[in-house]
Amino acid sequence: MRYHPRAGDLALAAAVLLPLVVALPRLGWPANEAGDWLAWTGRVTGILGLAMLLLAAAISIRVPGWDRPFGGLARLWRLHHGLGFGAFVLLMVHALALALAAVPLGLPVAVEVLFPPFSRGVIWLGWLAWLAMVLFLAPTFGFFGRPRYQAWKRLHLVSAVALLLALAHALPLAGETWPWWLLGMAGLAAIAWRKLGSRQARLAYRIEAVEPLARGVVELVLAPQGRRLVHEPGQFLYLTPLDKTLAAGRGEEHPYTITSAPADDRLRIGIKDLGDASHALQTVTPGSIARVEGPYGDFYGRHPSGRHRLWLGGGIGITPFVGGARDLVARGVVAAQVLLIYLTNRRERAYYLDELESIAERLAGFSVVVHDYLERGALDVAFLVEHCPGFAEREIHLCGPPAMNAHLMRLLTGQGVPRSRIHSEVLDFL
């Protein structure tokens, strides 16, 4: 499967390599001795590991719009997780390679490289940084089950401790310090913004109405209390409700997809009862205040080709397509044909379907087909060919539960659809 790098990927790769490029003239190339190669490998992996750790923090800043060069916030978060885990592995290799390089001098020397006298505090700062990384990353390995969303976000403060300790370890040992000051300030500034500054940038909205769509599904209608959020179809935001009567989630931020058209003077958000916070929002008090932060995501924006579109949505994953359909109505024109296949277990759970079918009746170029799992089983190639001949030539957007997304991805790529024309964003642990 061919990889298509984004502009943000290239900038990130250059930033990761910057400290190594600066240090290489000093490091040189090792001689042919195995010990020299191990020592060189230990230094290089230490440089790359620390750079990845600092950049993992830097790209967590979550400023609206900054995620788009990376392909949306969901993809940027995957890069963030990959950098963090990669940093952990490289820093382990860093310590072990340096110790193995000293083995020819005797085992006690190798052990002392790893665990020197406490007078060499700079080395022990490195071990403390590694311990902080272990504490921070442990929940991602599932040792203690899936962590609660807000607990996971608070745990990110441990990453700031790891960064400070890692910098305190590296700066006295580095020959060139300016790259570490640059990346270190970027990483720490990002954490400070997320924990302190971003709250000041959130916009105030009043919850005007709570419209039930089905059992356990509502759409919130919000009116701006000042500057309004400017967004594009398919994007999402972080909602922080301030209703004092909420049983859970008050003052907590959670991501939800925007279902209103960009031209709408009200903000609409579809919410399904999937956890404590989303359950409480089913009965949030109209008139209460909430704060929103965003928009994020790039579900439609980076794909301006003239190809016809195939939208595949199910569950609460139908929401970006509702926003897309409402935007088509607001603009009154469909530049390329759009077919929405609504995947549902049963029709009475297909919230928004009546509105979507009404839009299809009024708007030439937009159509809706329902796929009922209980009647037809999982979506297959025969259904796609029947309702969307030439689907493999379309630009395809999909959104739904993880199992549905995985099935559709396998089905489409198995039919030769390039991964570059399959677009999906999953708001999982953002």
Automatic annotation (TrEMBL):
GO MF annotation: an example: oxidoreductase activity
Gene3D superfamilies: Nucleotide-binding domain of ferredoxin-NADP reductase (FNR) module, Translation factors
Name of the protein in question: Predicted ferric reductase
Cofactor(s) required for function per UniProt: FAD
Pfam families in alphabetical order: FAD_binding_8, Ferric_reduct, NAD_binding_1
PANTHER family registered for this protein in UniProt: NADH OXIDOREDUCTASE HCR (PTHR47354:SF6)
Claim: Oxidoreductase is one of the keywords in the record: yes
Keywords tagged on the record: 2Fe-2S, FAD, Flavoprotein, Iron, Iron-sulfur, Membrane, Metal-binding, Oxidoreductase, Transmembrane, Transmembrane helix
GO cellular component: membrane
Transmembrane segments: 39-61, 82-103, 123-143, 155-172, 178-196
InterPro entries assigned to the protein according to its UniProt record, in alphabetical order: FAD-bd_8, FAD-bd_FR_type, Fe3_Rdtase_TM_dom, FNR_nucleotide-bd, MRET, OxRdtase_FAD/NAD-bd, Riboflavin_synthase-like_b-brl
Organism encoding this protein: Halomonas korlensis
Ranges where the FAD-binding FR-type domain occurs: 200-302
Topological relation to the membrane, as annotated: Multi-pass membrane protein
UniProt-annotated location(s): Membrane
